[in-house]
Amino acid sequence: MGAGHAHKLYRDGNSPVHALPAHCKLAAVFCFVLIVVATPRTAVWAFALYAVLLAAVAATARIPAGFLLKRLLIEVPFVAFAVLMPFVAEGPRTHVLGLDLSVSGLWGAWNILAKGTLGVAASVLLAATTELRQLLLGLQRLKMPPLLVQIASFMIRYGDVITDEMRRMRIARLSRGFEARGVRHWGVLAKSAGALFIRSYERGERVHLAMVSRGYTGTMPLLDATTASRTQWTRAAALPLAALAVCLLGWTL
Questions:
Q1: Could you tell me if residue 219 is inside a domain?
Q2: 50: confidence class by pLDDT, cuts 50, 70, 90
Q3: Residues 224-235 pLDDT 10s
Q4: What Å distances lie between residue 84 and 42, 108, 109, 111, 117, CA to CA?
Q5: Number of domains observed in the structure of the chain
Q6: Which residues span the domain enclosing 112?
Q7: Is there a domain that residue 15 lies in?
């Protein structure tokens, strides 16, 4: 985790949100998501206020709306599942635009869409304002199990390596005139997948041996001892505290 690793979700900037320590932002987003999930689904106005809070964070971080909306497309499979719920759920029925829909299914679909979208949006804002290396260091500072942090670190680092290996193998096949056009070519693709697995496994062994030869004992050193000040924690807590107030109103009104 000593070297930087850029990712497509990150948007470089020098906003107050970017300047907050990663572990502060991780804790704030985690608490915000818990509060959103705990909000009663019937408090529709509360979810609108949550969206306003996230929009305020995005504006403070100078994250364009298009950048955020484009990356929200990752939840499309969940949207498709939610759309089906009013048709398959049981219970009292109602008619909407000539369609016979389940009342409980409609509320369930709304619950998934509202809370899922807000959670994904908060995660996208976190990724857009925090580098991957800082996220991993933030997890370390929050006392996440070291083994899980190391697995995440290696997965991020060697995902690009394996992707590049796949690209080279594809170029090698194309240079030999191969083009997958049907079931007959699945055997070649299966052999390529097997070769990729073997190469990745061998690379992992070599990396592990190199780490052991340099003194690796199962834990990675904490290379960044940056601590957060009380002011930084207060700024990070602004989002979940505001969300908590909305949630409490949602339960009482």
A1: no
A2: very high
A3: 666 788 999 999
A4: 20, 10, 8, 13, 17
A5: 2
A6: 22-138+227-252
A7: no
